[in-house]
Amino acid sequence: MTPQAVPSSMHLLWLIPALPLAVAIVNLFVGKRLGKLAGVLASVAVACSFALSVMVVRDLLTMPAESRLYIRHLFDWIRVGGFNVGADLRLDQVSAVMIMVVTGVGMLIHIYAIGYMDGDPRYGRFFAYMNLFVFFMLILVLGENLLVLYLGWEGVGLCSYLLIGFWFDKTENAVAAKKAFITTRIGDTLMLVGLALIAQKFGTLDFTVIFGTAAGTLTKDAATVISLLLFAGAVGKSAQLPLHVWLPDAMAGPTPVSALIHAATMVTAGVYLVIRMHPLFEISGVALTVVLIVGLLTAIYAATCALGQDDIKRVLAYSTISQLGFMFMAVGMRAYAAAMFMLVAHAFYKALMFLGAGSVMHGTHDQTDMNRFGGLLKPMPITAITFMIGAAAQAGVPPLAGFFAKDAILEIADHSGRIGIYVLGSAGAFLSAAYIGRMVFLTFFGAPRSQDAAHAHESPAVMWFPLAVLAAGAATIGWLNLTPEGRLSEWLRPAAAVAVSGPGLSTGVLLAIAVAITAAALLLTWWIFGSGRVDRAAFLDRAEPLPRLFKNGWYIDQAYRTVLVRPSEVGAAITAQVVDAKIVDGAFNAIGAGTKRLAQAGRRIQTGYVRSYALAIALGAVALLLYVGVRP
Amino acid sequence: MPLDNVVFWVFAPISVASAIAMLVMRNAVHAALFLIVNFFCIAVMYLLLDAPFLFAVQIIVYAGAIMVLFLFVIMLLGVDRTEDLRERLAGQRIAAVVLGVGAALEITMAIRAGVGFARHAPVSFVGGSAQALAAKLFTTYFFPFEVTSILLIVAAIAAMVLAQRKARAVTLAEAAAGRPEAPAPAPAAAGAGAGPQVVP
Amino acid sequence: MRTPIAYFLVLSGILFSIGTAGVLLRKNALVIFMSVELQLNAVNLTLVAFSRMHGDLGGQVLAFFSMVVAAAEVVVGLAIIVSVYRRHHSVNVDEARELSG
Q1: C98 to chain A: which residues are within 8 Å by CB?
Q2: Per-residue pLDDT for A375 more than 50?
Q3: Closest residue by Cα to residue A256 from A16, A459, A32, A34
Q4: What are the backbone angles phi and psi of residue A90, rounded to the nearest 5°?
Q5: Do B99 and A615 touch (CB under 8 A)?
Q6: Average pLDDT score over chain B
Q7: Cβ of C55 under 8 Å from any chain A Cβ?
Q8: Domains along chain C?
Q9: Which residues of chain C lie closer than 8 angstroms to B198, CB-CB?
Q10: pTM for the whole structure
Q11: Chain B neighbours, 3+ Cβ pairs < 8 A
Q12: Average pLDDT over residues C14-28
């Protein structure tokens, strides 16, 4: 095979998003009649996409390392004047990793959902939306130009809205869906401005062209502005400060949705975007610093909030926000490989924990309040074990994946001389382990604290099988990148340079510190929450006002409500009740009323009295006579 | 003082006075009678204007036939009814007077501007004798003559149709009782037996 | 004939105006009708006067036909008044108000 020849299955690239789309359409129209088959069909579609992804990536591996790039032009999409946008797909190292994650984890979650959503009246529609989401996500990561990416971007936003509000009979679910959509919309709009600027400066939205000519075309300031605008979109989609408020509320959706969209895939789109556009970010150094700071602040903020939540899904939501913050920290330090590694690992263990939480909910009659759990290890062993594997991975217990990922980021921070970042990041790691520990100990250990917990039962096989697979993945995926110069970094190097390695504490010392932090956090939380030796209520009382502050997300949501939402609601109410009802309707009604009054006035001529009519005739005749007599 | 002048200045005021009298009389019969006086005066005017035939026809047709018809109908519909003097329509009286006076003034102005008030030299005039009129009527105006005869027939038939009482089926009860009941109730203001019963 | 024709015309105009006022002022349908007849007569007088002025007998013929038509009109009009009376039992023209808007 010559280096230029395209390997055999690469031309099937377009099938990877096409299959879920096709099945989504099928399920949309005949899903009701298919019954349980709808779920199986959807899972098969994603599984086929996964298989194709594996084949395609394997073919990518056969290409030489420096030229692992495949672009496929499907059709001309927009041709206006000199501005052309094609429906183009791009497969390189970054998108290869993404499609594997999306289809792999997605496949397992679909299988899980077959059992989880059993009995729901809108079963078919659920899987249609899920497949539609997978389609859009794949489009997002496979796009060769920013417009295809944006299409996927908006599409996943739409599917997120549809799926969060899937049980729209309950108003709060619809409200949460609306909140998610509107909040991400703010970021999306800024991102669109960034796209427009790029189109203006480069005359095109193609990645190849942009990356090739970026250095020459953009000034530092222009690059900063564009990068920050794009980052705004990432902030919205990945729920970073200040646009993070939608993600905890998005837990109103079914658990598979939380697992797929809000843990493994959609929220990582922001990270993907920044990594993809890193040439622009690097031209402007400021943008990367902003990314770093935002990521750091978010990581710590969200970790504190996770510590204060009682709802198990909300803990996981804040946890996701925090972990994404770590990923952005990595990106901000130019450690793209480390960020990607964490993304992959996080996809596994977070999806695992969400599905596990779903299993716990399933077994305890849909309880989510951890205060009502306790002692679930015995009745739900598989769920408990797999969940704890995921938790351990996140907390940074070696040799699980999370340990290497987090450690890599902190190591890079230290080695690149950012000691402050290192310290704060370690604090964030401590908090991460703490809230994970709290969650695990409250849920699975101690005595049952409610009837539902006492009578809990394990979930069916179709639900714990994906848990097992994900647990295996979470446990072993560490081999991808044992060090910052590991396999994944090597794989990504042509596409995204690895961070510079410099002087600092040695790797061994850093590893030891990391292990110590994790151990300390877990022991502390075991002591407080799991061992039963500390009176939890008293402890929380003494810690006030922190628990309440954490639980309410530092009252940011309430602040937004007062400053932004209420004025909008008032404005909307004014528009609806005053402008529309009174002014616009009033104008129309006035026209109608005016016509009516005119008619009423005219009506008075028809008195019915013959003599009035005679008078009118006489008047007319006399007037006419006058005119005839008087005119010159 | 030429005779026609005298005649004119005697009968013109009488005609105007009788017209005004007709206007103000509350009793319809009185008004009709004053109108007859007016017609007589106009007939005299015709005579002054060399139209003897028309003088005769005016008296025979107008005063003799039309007004008699009027008097018959007045008699039918209540001789002693006097008209209600209250005026319900606002401004009607004033408007009527103003319009009447205005019309008169305008016509006078028109006449002054047109014909003029000067004396004309008498035109040789064949005269409105019966022969002269017949000569015109049965030659030049023959077609309108025939048409008006049809018109008169149609008018007579129309009057008969309009004034008919609607026939009504006799009910069983009526047949048993041997006489028709009260006439079919007319809509709106009619009450049974209200007003004098008119028998054609 | 020494009387200026204009005098006849003025007389006719006055009679016509009185007839107009009668139509507008009176409420009795029959009196209104009589006022209309007065108007017709006034016009006939005008016709005959002009006929005399121009020496054309056509005016008198027209006046004659006018009388014929007036007669026919009176016949039909009185029949209508009788019908209306049968409905409202009154000759007051103000009673016939059904066509009010």
Answers
A1: 608
A2: yes
A3: A459
A4: -130, 130
A5: yes
A6: 82
A7: no
A8: 5-89 (1.10.287.3510)
A9: 86
A10: 0.69
A11: A, C
A12: 93
| C20: chain A residues, CB-CB within 8 Å | 618
* A89 φ/ψ angles, rounded to the nearest 5 degrees: -110, 145
Residues forming a β-bridge with A83? A80
Interchain CB distance below 8 Å, B106 and A607: no
Tokens of C7: 């005098």
Q: Please check the confidence at residue A500 and state whether its pLDDT lies above 70.
A: no
Q: What is the ipTM of this complex?
A: 0.93
- Residue given tokens 């427009």 in the structure block: A196
Domain borders along chain B are: 1-81, 129-166
Residue A438 has pLDDT above 50, yes or no: yes
Closest CA–CA distance from residue B136 to any residue of chain A (Å): 33
DSSP assignment of A616-629: HHHHHHHHHHHHHH
Q: What is the largest CA-CA distance in chain B?
A: 81
* Domain boundaries B1-81, CATH class: mainly alpha
pLDDT band at B69 (very low <50, low <70, confident <90, very high): very high
- What does the H/E/C string look like for A84-147? EEEEEEEECHHHHHHHHHHHHHHHHHHHHHHHHCCCCCCHHHHHHHHHHHHHHHHHHHHECEHH
Q: Please give the biggest Cα pair distance in chain C.
A: 55
CA-to-CA separations, B111 to A176, A208, A583, B14, B102, in angstroms, rounded: 93, 102, 62, 22, 14
Contact A412, A484 (CB under 8 A): yes
Alpha helix positions (H), B49-141 = 52-57, 67-76, 92-113, 130-137
Residues counted in chain B: 200
Inter-chain CB pairs, B–C, below 8 Å: 263
- Write the single-letter amino acid at A134: V
Query: Does the N-terminal peptide bond of residue A64 adopt cis geometry, omega within 30 degrees of 0?
Result: no
What are A77-110's pLDDT values in tens digits? Answer: 888 887 888 888 888 888 888 999 999 999 999 9
Q: Find the mean pLDDT for residues A200-226.
A: 86
Give the tokens for residue A24.
Answer: 């989504």
- The pLDDT-based confidence of B197 (bands split at 50, 70, 90) is very low
Instruction: Say what the pLDDT of residue A497 is.
Output: 62
Question: Residue A66 burial by CB count (10 A; 0-12/13-18/19+): exposed, middle or buried?
Answer: exposed
Would an 8 Å CB–CB cutoff place C20 in contact with chain A? yes
For residue C53, the chain B residues in CB contact (below 8 A) are 115, 120, 123
Residue A436 CB neighbour total at 10 angstroms: 32
Q: How confident is the model at residue A453 (pLDDT cuts 50, 70, 90)?
A: confident
**Best of C56, C60, C82 to disrupt the B interface by mutation (most B CBs within 10 Å)?**
C60
Classify A417 in phi/psi space as left (phi over 0), alpha (psi -120 to 50) or beta. left
Crossing angle (nearest 10°) for helices A381-395 and A401-415: 10
Q: Please give the full DSSP string across A15-81, using - where no structure is assigned.
A: HHHHHHHHHHHHHHHHHHHHTTHHHHHHHHHHHHHHHHHHHHHHHHHHS-GGG--EEEEEEEEEEET
Encoding tokens for residue A283? 């031209």
What is the structure's pLDDT at A555? 86
Residues of C in contact with B95 (CB under 8 A): 24
pLDDT in tens, B6-35: 999 999 999 999 999 999 988 899 999 999
Using the beta-carbon criterion (under 8 Å), do B99 and C53 form an inter-chain contact? no
Q: Which two tokens stand for residue B181?
A: 């009941």
Cβ atoms of residues A185 and A201 within 8 Å:
no
Determine the pLDDT at residue A85: 86
Whether C99 and A615 lie within 8 Å, measured CB to CB? no
A618 in contact with B at a CB cutoff of 8 Å?
yes
- Cα(A619)–Cα(A613) distance, rounded to whole angstroms? 10
